[in-house]
Amino acid sequence: MKVSIITTIYKAEKDLPRLLDSMMAQKSPELEFFLIDNGSPDRCGEICREYAQKDSRFKVFTLKNNIGYICARNLGIQEVDADYIGFCDSDDYLEPVGYDYAVDKIKKTQCDLYITAYNTVSDGNKVVCEIPYDVGVYSGKQVMNKILPQAFGPLPRKAVLHGFAWKQIFRRKIFLDNGLNFKSKIQPYEDQILNIEFINHCELICIDDVVIYNYVVNNDSITAKLAANFDGQKEWNRLVLFYSEKKCRATTDIQKEALSNQMNTFLYSLFLCAAKFKESTAMQLAKELDRYLDRAMIIQMLENTSKNNSLREKIVKWCLSHHEYRVLLTAMRLGLRLRG
């Protein structure tokens, strides 16, 4: 069995050695580290080649021009020759022998998808992020009934399965046989759609609580930059596209319920970002949001939310469904002031 870990690399020479060192520390000969130099203008390509000389498990694939990390990942899926594939971000790093453990677990279970816990690392502090399922091997109807719904969103007392492709290892054949890939048009939510599509084709999924990956909070990441340079209309357009992509894949009531719960959370986040603009009054912000928000679409997004959601979630739904944007923004600003 061969497991190839695909890493797309661009302008990462500062953090790259940490990742490559952590890869080289894995012991399994069944691991391959497929490094895509995505047209990086710095020393990334040179660093990758240096490590490839030290360890034959490193394979370097060089692109002349940057094609974006999503397209590069899709290219990697096609180019590797492996039974299973995983993904890494160049500013993160692996836990010691974590992927050795994952390889052994996959060999024992013969699963189509391996999902595990991970660490979030911020200012050197690690916090374990658990997977929102009980540990075990799920098959057949269990995959559809117990795993797939939370890929659409959260349910009461059941958290959403976040996308984050790097916390999973996939059977490559499922990608190839079903024409699956990451969809760049819905960045940064492309991994969530991929999760749904992939899980739909799985017969066996292994859920584990062993941490193998360290996700480093990076203020220069794409997601962080989107938050720092908040553009309400662009975020709304992304949410509409994201909702449309998930809605057409939701075939059961529980999937639709989970999706509506997630849209409630996403819309809350959009309004919270808007509420932080101190130079505008709540009335001014409400008018600005009303300029591009589609009220009918919002009602559709929220129509299937869980009846026993939290009070906050119910208030958010009521305000949005009844066009009380100013009330919601005022309440959010009050909450922000109280939290200091």
From TrEMBL:
Pfam families, A to Z: Glycos_transf_2
EC number: 2.4.-.-
Domain of life according to the entry: Bacteria
InterPro entries in the record: Glyco_trans_2-like, Nucleotide-diphossugar_trans
Keyword Glycosyltransferase (UniProt): yes
CDD domains per the UniProt record, alphabetical: Glyco_tranf_GTA_type
SUPFAM superfamilies given in the database record: Nucleotide-diphospho-sugar transferases (SSF53448)
UniProtKB keywords: Glycosyltransferase, Transferase
Signal peptide feature range: none
A Gene Ontology molecular function term of the record: glycosyltransferase activity
Domain Glycosyltransferase 2-like, chain residue ranges per copy: 4-124
Protein name: Glycosyltransferase
Species for this entry: Dorea acetigenes
Native organism taxonomy: Bacteria, Bacillati, Bacillota, Clostridia, Lachnospirales
